[in-house]
Design brief:
The protein is mainly alpha-helical. Helix content is 51%, strand content 12%. The strands form 2 sheets. The protein has a 3-stranded antiparallel beta sheet, with helices on one face. The longest helix is centred in the middle third of the chain and has 20 residues.
Amino acid sequence: MLIKSRDPGRYADYQQFESIRKLRAGFSNVFLASLTGTASLRSMGGDKAKQFFTNCPTHSQWFKKFSKGCLSRMGQVVKQDMAVSLELMHALVEMLEKEWEHASIPIQRSAVASVGAYATIAFCGSFRGPEVFLTDLFGLNKYLAADLSVDGKAYVIIPLLGRFKNELGNQYHLTPLIATTKSGIPVRIWVQRLVDTRLKEGRRNGPAFGDQAGRISYPWYEREILERFQVVQQ
């Protein structure tokens, strides 16, 4: 780990602690899968909760203190991504609205609807990026057809289908979002456009943000959104 720390890193002329600590996980996995590690492993507990006893060197008290001292001496350089502001989001929605009006062929309208729906759902639902891709097309179409209004305010249901945290199996997670936010972000309009373009493609099931085969291109969405952010910044 100390030798690895002297390699050049992304943010400094040395590797960060979070990078070199991965060597510990790799060593531990190899050790526990070896003959020595398997023979020395002991467990205690029931079906749900267990504790394991091992003589793996990276689980020792010495290594624990070494890691703590290493982190305290190296420090950490953290460079977080800037948050998407409300002004930036409105600029993006306005840009996408103009693109939607000028889109003349189905593939263009499908691309614009995908980016618009993804951006509004992620922003207004406070979802992490990968969580939006769990949106189910069948559920989205089902709940859009229902009249969901409370105290005169319309809502749209975002159905996420997948496995979350320690759950077993895939389950539905229904998240209600206001149809139009106070600042004017039209969530329902973009969700409706997404569903309409998928129906014209003959698709009613599967991931709402996937292609005909159900595949999701994560880099494509990232590239499409960041390129528009750059235009706004310029």
